[in-house]
Design goal:
Shape: elongated
Structural class: mainly alpha
Distance between the termini: 21 Å
Length: 77
């Protein structure tokens, strides 16, 4: 069914983003709270992204990955 395929693709993208964020955060030895403070958001937001519960907007993603020292974000799906 097309709706399921669309949902499935979106969910795969969320999981990929969650894994990428977790990997980058832990590679930088940051807690969720530390990353949240640097990105001007809350630890709960970081947690929801890392648990693939939300699809964050580009503005928030930009803040988070800049806080991780990344100036370019490439996500391959």
């Amino acid at each position: 069914h097309p709706k399921f395929e669309e949902w499935s693709e979106v969910h795969r993208m969320r999981i990929h983003l969650a894994e990428t964020l977790y990997r980058e955060r832990t590679a930088n030895h940051l807690t969720m709270a530390e990353l949240a403070a640097k990105a001007q958001t809350t630890p709960a937001v970081i947690s929801r992204i890392e648990n693939a519960q939300v699809s964050p907007g580009i503005d928030l993603l930009s803040k988070i990955f800049r806080a991780l020292g990344k100036h370019q974000l490439v996500l391959e799906f």
